[in-house]
Amino acid sequence: MGPVRSELMWQAVVDAVAIAGAGQLLDVLDLGGGTGGDAVHLARLGHRVTVVDPSPDALASLHRRGIEAGLPEPVRGVQGDSGDLLDHVEPASFDLVVCHGVLEHVDDPALALDTVATALRPGGHASVMVAGRNAAIAARALAGDFVTAHTLLGRTVDTWDLRSMGPRRFAPAELEALLSSHGFVTVRTNGVRVFADLVPSAIVDIEPGARDALYALERELRSSSEFSALSAGLQSIARLDLPAAATPDPGGRSAAL
Fold first, then answer.
1. What is the pLDDT of residues 30-69, one digit of tens each?
2. Alpha helices in the chain (DSSP H)
3. Other Cβ atoms within 10 Å of 95 Cβ, number
4. pLDDT (tens digit, 9 = 90+) per residue, 85-136?
5. What sign has the CA pseudo-torsion 186, 181, 10, 36?
6. 3-state class (DSSP) for residue 205
7. Best CA proximity match to 230, nearest among 198, 183, 186, 184
8. 66 and 134 in contact (C-beta within 8 Å)?
């Protein structure tokens, strides 16, 4: 099951690059980019990539991965997170910020998005992927944990307690509203892994053609609101809708550049 899941996650990055770049090479920030699997792929395509991640071990793996890939210049790796991002990168210095699997874990998703917006050039794009709450509810119910499923059903992003409930889970409308309230216009919403996390790996690994058929089904359903709302990953590719003379600061205000 791993290869299909990984391919779908990488395709989500490809989708964001296609929208943000329109065929041009980009300055890309991969926030929480870990060991740099996506970042090195992007660098091999010619994009200029910076990875910001809190783990020194992950950044060391990123460096090794870049060497093994034979990159002419290494991917820039910076130890940090959304809280101190602006200590490490210049405002308005990126065309695309990939923010996948970050907002689930931070104490304040709104503040993290403000920081992302500050790092973007006016008219730049962010690809934000979060864990879907509907998928988490379904997974708990299918596992027979009906109490937790009911608890998740009654929660919202605003009432989520990271310490008692683990990583935050989003409904699609919550993600779009959060982006909209921080200066972003959603360009495309995708569901990532509608069924991929539910199908037994034995089926995909053994049945001839099953892997390709599952991938094709996932790609077909990614833009269907009925199915994407059930996906394990919710991706919004959004454009920073701000005048060229202004960008938000981390407190959510606009400031002249």
1. 999 999 999 999 999 999 999 999 999 999 999 999 999 9
2. 2-21, 37-44, 56-68, 109-119, 133-142, 146-153, 162-165, 172-180, 201-206, 210-221, 225-228
3. 20
4. 999 999 999 999 999 999 999 999 999 999 999 999 999 999 999 999 999 9
5. positive
6. helix
7. 198
8. no
Q: How far is 156 from 158, CA to CA, in rounded Å?
A: 5
What is the rounded distance in angstroms from the CA atom of residue 179 to the CA atom of residue 218? 24
Spatial contact of 42 and 36, defined as CB atoms under 8 Å apart:
no
Q: Are 132 and 231 in contact (CB under 8 A)?
A: yes
Q: Could you tell me which of 31, 43, 38, 32 has the C-alpha nearest to residue 12?
A: 38
Beta bridge partners of 239: 125, 185
**Amino acid, res. 218:** E
- Residue 247 tokens, joined: 């960008």
Q: Which of 127, 137, 106 is nearest to 26 (CA)?
A: 127
120-131: strand order across its sheet: 76-79, 48-53, 27-31, 94-100, 120-131, 233-240, 184-192
Backbone dihedral region of 56: left (phi > 0), alpha (psi from -120 to 50 degrees) or beta? alpha
